[in-house]
From TrEMBL:
InterPro entries: WD40/YVTN_repeat-like_dom_sf, Xyloglucanase_GH74. This is Photosynthesis system II assembly factor Ycf48/Hcf136-like domain-containing protein.
Length: 375
């Protein structure tokens, strides 16, 4: 019998403040407009705003606490690649490990200590990686925009400037070619879903979104052109790379996050209704668990019934396709990104913020191990 889980408070990612979001516990009063606005802020990059303004802060007047810098540094995105490569995009630069987190290099010299976010890699060639970068310090002069790497994040080249494409909120590698990339530009409104077929050099809007704003994009693995978007108003599906969209039945309110473990695997969604699952490629969803809402979900390659749910303070695990959940051992700190190892499904990596730290979790011994070297 599954037990009822009341989510931990979600972190706003900006500082020490914590928001309890009305509606995340079903007995609380529900204010749809306020909830939608707060959830959008929670899911945005910690230091980027939808209006496209660039945050410029001074270097924290503190000493380094570990290899990732001062206690003020925080994580925006993390990516695990084959051959034990880990990439961590932080407010003060990009860090890389080639030995599953035992040692780290960074910040990347080509990107300096610019703010990096929204890491994604091609489904067809995992060595092709993309990220967004902008200024974190008023003294920085590096180009703001989309950067690309063809060697697993070892070296980077500017693919396109934000001044040309518009400021992107999120990027997701496509599923039709190694050079396809999906992105969302909020300032373009309903035409904000844009696609590049040349590795991020040029973008076009293939069609009109059914929502004014979206919170995220999911490109289905090994299913060319099949892509889902989710928003405060529900979710939609396209079978032609975003040229046409169909609203997905089964959602009647906000959807925070979606994930899947692979081709033809279940698709999991977390939203105001709870945890929902699709087994028909996203055409329809059914409620799997009504008593929990997670800010992020993580599916595990090769384990279609395994899914993890994350809040600001706790991580929960389901081994039966989202119908029952149990808490993993707690780690103190602000939990950010949880990603699986693409070659060792029993291993997951977790990032923490304030300060930036990295842990790994082994399913077999159900324990966390720190991967954070000292300064």
């Amino acid at each position: 019998m599954s037990r009822k889980i009341f989510p931990e408070p979600l972190q706003d990612g900006i500082g020490a403040r914590t928001y309890y979001v009305p509606g995340l516990i079903k007995h609380w009063l529900y204010f749809p407009v306020q909830v939608a606005c707060i959830l959008a802020l929670l899911l945005l990059s910690a230091c980027s705003a939808l209006n496209g303004s660039t945050q410029q802060t001074d270097t924290p007047a503190a000493q380094k606490v570990n290899v990732f810098g001062t206690a003020a540094n925080h994580v925006h995105a993390m990516l695990a690649l084959p051959n034990n490569v880990l990439l961590v995009a932080t407010h003060y630069g990009l860090y890389r490990s080639v030995d599953a987190g035992k040692s780290w290099s960074g910040p990347n010299q080509g990107l300096s200590d610019m703010m990096t976010s929204s890491l994604t890699s091609s489904q067809l060639n995992r060595q092709h990686v993309y990220l967004l970068a902008e200024h974190s310090l008023s003294s920085q002069t590096g180009a703001i925009g989309l950067y690309a790497s063809s060697d697993g994040g070892n070296s980077w080249q500017l693919a396109s400037k934000a001044s040309d494409t518009g400021k992107m909120y999120t990027i997701v590698a496509g599923n039709r070619s190694v050079n396809e990339l999906y992105a969302y530009v909020p300032t373009k409104g309903a035409n904000g879903f844009v696609v590049s077929q040349d590795g991020g050099k040029h973008f076009t809007s293939p069609g009109v979104l059914p929502f004014g704003r979206i919170l995220g994009i999911l490109a289905l693995p090994n299913q060319p052109g099949q892509v889902l978007v989710y928003s405060n108003d529900g979710a939609a599906r396209s079978s032609d790379g975003g040229a046409h969209w169909e609203t997905i039945k089964g959602f009647n309110s906000a959807v925070y996050n979606m994930t899947t473990s692979g081709s033809q695997a279940p698709i999991y969604a977390s939203g105001d209704q709870g945890i929902l699952v699709s087994k028909d490629g996203g055409k329809s969803f059914s409620l799997a668990y009504a008593d929990a809402r997670y800010s992020a979900l993580t599916a595990v390659p090769g384990q279609p019934e395994m899914v993890y749910g994350k809040t600001g303070r706790m991580i929960y695990e389901s081994t039966d396709g989202g119908h029952a959940w149990k808490a993993l051992p707690q780690i103190k700190g602000n939990l950010e990104n949880l990603v699986p190892d693409p070659q060792l499904p029993s291993r997951l990596f977790l990032s923490l913020s304030y300060p930036c730290e990295i842990y790994q979790f082994d399913q077999q011994n159900a324990a966390w191990t720190s991967l954070t070297p000292k300064a």
